[in-house]
Specification:
alpha/beta; four-stranded antiparallel sheet; 38% helix
Length: 234
C-alpha cells in the first residue's frame, strides 16, 4: 500500500534574483513499512525533498499525495493539522523542549491532539519502554546524553501514531555507539510495528541499515535500489 506518492515535484528558490533549481521533476512512491534512506552530496536536494514530504516547505510544481491527500492543495492551517496528525519528525538537533520532562516532551503532541490524559500516559509508557528510558521519564533533556535525547525525539515523533517518520540526519550529532543504538531501536520499531521511516543522510551507518537507498544529485533521482534487488544481482 502506497502511503506517499509524489509526481513531478520541482522546487525553485530565487537567490539574488537567480533561480536555483533544488528539485527537478521528482517522481517517487513509498509503501507502508519502508525503511528508506535518501542520500546524496550536500546541495543535492535531499533535505528539500524531506521538507516537502513533511509539509514544511512547498513545492514550486508537482503533486504530493500523503495517505491519499494532496498536500499541495491544503491551506496553511489545514496543512499544519494534517502534519500534526499524520507525520512524525526527527531532526539532528533533537528539538526537545528544555523546560519539560522526558514524559512531558513525548506527551506534548498528544496534548495538542486533545488526547485524554490516561491515554497519553499509557502511550508514553509504551514508548519509554520501547526506547529503554522508562527510568528517565522525569528527567529534563539537559540531564540526558545526546543519544538519549535523540531516542526521546524518536518516541515523541511516534507518540501521535503518524503514518510515517521523516528523519533528517538523525545520527549526525551522535557518537558511534549512540548512533548504532538509535538505529537498532528504529529498525526494531520498523520490523515489529511496521512503522515507516524515511531518512535523509550522509551517514554510512544509516545507509547500511536501510532497506532501500534513493540517491539524489542536482535535484534528480539518479538511482533507487531496494537491497533485495542488489542481493539478487550478486
Amino acid at each position: 500500500m502506497n502511503i506517499i506518492e509524489i509526481k513531478g515535484v520541482t522546487k525553485i528558490y530565487d537567490k539574488n534574483t537567480i533561480p536555483v533549481h533544488a528539485l527537478n521533476g521528482i517522481d517517487l512512491t513509498f509503501q507502508e513499512g519502508e525503511f528508506a534512506s535518501i542520500v546524496g552530496p550536500s546541495g543535492s536536494g535531499k533535505t528539500t525533498l524531506l521538507n516537502i514530504l513533511g509539509g514544511l516547505d512547498d513545492a514550486t510544481d508537482g503533486v504530493v499525495l500523503i495517505d491519499g491527500v494532496d498536500l499541495t492543495a491544503l491551506s496553511g492551517a489545514k496543512k499544519t493539522t494534517f502534519r500534526k496528525n499524520k507525520i512524525g519528525f526527527v531532526f539532528q538537533s533533537f528539538n526537545l523542549i528544555p523546560v519539560l520532562t522526558v514524559q512531558e516532551n513525548i506527551e506534548f503532541i498528544m496534548q495538542l491532539q486533545g488526547i485524554a490524559r490516561e491515554d497519553r500516559e499509557k502511550r508514553t509508557a509504551e514508548l519509554l519502554e520501547a526506547i529503554g528510558l522508562s527510568d528517565r521519564k522525569n528527567s529534563r533533556p539537559n540531564k540526558l546524553s545526546g543519544g538519549q535525547q535523540q531516542r526521546v525525539a524518536v518516541a515523541r515523533a511516534l507518540a501521535s501514531k503518524p503514518k510515517f517518520i521523516l528523519a533528517d540526519e538523525p545520527t549526525a550529532n551522535l557518537d558511534s555507539k549512540s548512533a548504532e543504538n538509535l538505529l537498532d531501536i528504529m529498525g526494531k520499531l520498523n520490523r515489529e510495528e511496521n512503522i515507516t521511516f524515511i531518512f535523509s543522510t550522509h551517514d554510512l551507518r544509516v545507509m547500511n541499515k536501510a532497506k532501500r537507498i534513493i540517491t539524489i544529485e542536482d535535484g534528480k533521482v539518479i538511482s533507487d535500489v531496494v537491497k533485495e534487488e542488489i542481493h539478487n544481482l550478486i
